Every structure is written in C-alpha cells, then in structure tokens.
Amino acid sequence: MIEKMIEKNNELRDKLTPENKKYYEKILLYTRFKGLFGDDELIETVLLNMLYDLIDAQESGISAEDYFGRKPKQYLDELFKEMPQVPLSKKLSIFYMVFGISSGFSLFSTLTQKNPSINILTIILNGLLSILLVFSVFKYLEKMTFKVSKQSKILEYIGTFVIGGLLTVGFIGSVMIGNKFLSLPVPLYVSMVVIVLIMIVVSYYIIKRKNKPYYSYLIFGWGITFFTTVSRLPQTQKWFESEPVMIGSIIVILLSSFLTARFSQKAILNEDK
C-alpha cells in the first residue's frame, strides 16, 4: 500500500511546473524527515492528498506558494500536531533496526582490523552512536529543508560532511576503546569470510525492505569490504601501510562518507524511510 502511494506520488510530481515541483519537494522532504517516528502510511497519504490538491490548484492557475503560503513549515508543524500519536513500540522499532544494522557493521569493523577480533563493547558503543547519529541527521536535515540562502546551503554541505566525518571518527574511536576490553581474537581468513557473510545478510535485509536511503551505505560498506580485504593480503599489506596510501585512504573514506550521506538524503525524495 505504501509503495503504491510512493510510486503514485513520484508519477504525479512530474505534472507540476518546475516552481511548484521545487516547492512541493521541500514539503515532501520536511514531512518525511519530521515523520521519522510517525505512521508511514498516514504520512504518505497526507503527502499524496496535498499533491492532488496542488495539481488542482495549478490547473486553476494558483501557484504552490499562493495555495500553501510562503511559510509551509508552520502549516506542516500544525498538521503534525493534529496527527494521532504513534505507539512507543512503533518508535522503538526504528531504533532496533538501526541498532541491528549497526551491530553488523560494528562486527564488520572489528573483523577488518590488522588483528581481527569480535568485541561486544564496540558493538554496543557503535549501536548507541548509530542511533544518535540517525536521529541527529534527520533532525538536522529537517531544520535545513526550508533554508534557501546560499549560506544555508553551504552550511548544509558542511554539516553533512561533519556528520559523515564524525561517523567515521566515532567508529574508529569505539574500536580503539573496545579493543581494550572483551576482545576475542579471530583468525585472519575466518574474519574475511565472516565479513562477506555479514555484508550479504545486511544487504539482503535492506534490499528486501526496499530501504533505498540505505542503498548508498551498502555501496560504501562493500567498498570498505573490498578495501580492507585487499589491504590485509600478504602481497599488498606493506603497500597499504605506507604513509601516502594511509593518508589517501583516510581522505577517500571521509569523502565517501560525505557522498553516502548526500545520496541517502536525495533518495528520501523518491523513497519511504
């Protein structure tokens, strides 16, 4: 049901004029960001009804700005206040999903070290960090949606880059802390096999749920999988330990984190959460 509404929304948006489409897509982004813990079906229903209304207004020669006003954020905030409260179990399900995905990547991170291991403390720390990160990203993007100045756009890009960098630093830090406690060593080649299996399971889960905003993270994850596997092979290990390659690798990872966050944001325009 939700998927059909999203497909219909994508189809009908093409009927809007460029100005109206740009205006409506800001409404769409803000609603989906703010509705992170809301009822997906209700949110998509509201978005689709607003789109139908806008198309009718457009046919009557009324612009989106004239129809919804110059401050749509206030209108949407009032609309959210009227929506029914979502059960706590529904809200927590998102945290469970994020924690589960994070646990897979956390296990992945400890297994990709030079001396691979399984570390329970790292998994817990990364899980909590990921929950905080997801909540912060959605709140930040929600706040920036209706910012239209060049300065705000620059701040949006800087903020996205900082968030991506903090994610990378946070994961590295949790691994360093976790290595000091409850660390169980794992043979190198066993760790490589486990890493690939983790990526397969996580990829299957995300693709099955059609969580397109997470597709860019899968590409990032598979890229890291390939990189870490090659870097730990006896034939290439010394080359990857050289200072220029290490610096270059850090730069590539940070840029990849930034691009991953940006692609994820754009995917929300055409996909449910």
TrEMBL record:
<feature type="transmembrane region" description="Helical">
    <location>
        <begin position="118"/>
        <end position="142"/>
    </location>
</feature>
<protein>
    <recommendedName>
        <fullName>DUF1129 domain-containing protein</fullName>
    </recommendedName>
</protein>
<keyword id="KW-0472">Membrane</keyword>
<feature type="transmembrane region" description="Helical">
    <location>
        <begin position="245"/>
        <end position="263"/>
    </location>
</feature>
<keyword id="KW-1133">Transmembrane helix</keyword>
<feature type="transmembrane region" description="Helical">
    <location>
        <begin position="154"/>
        <end position="177"/>
    </location>
</feature>
<feature type="transmembrane region" description="Helical">
    <location>
        <begin position="93"/>
        <end position="112"/>
    </location>
</feature>
<keyword id="KW-0812">Transmembrane</keyword>
<feature type="transmembrane region" description="Helical">
    <location>
        <begin position="189"/>
        <end position="207"/>
    </location>
</feature>
<feature type="transmembrane region" description="Helical">
    <location>
        <begin position="214"/>
        <end position="233"/>
    </location>
</feature>
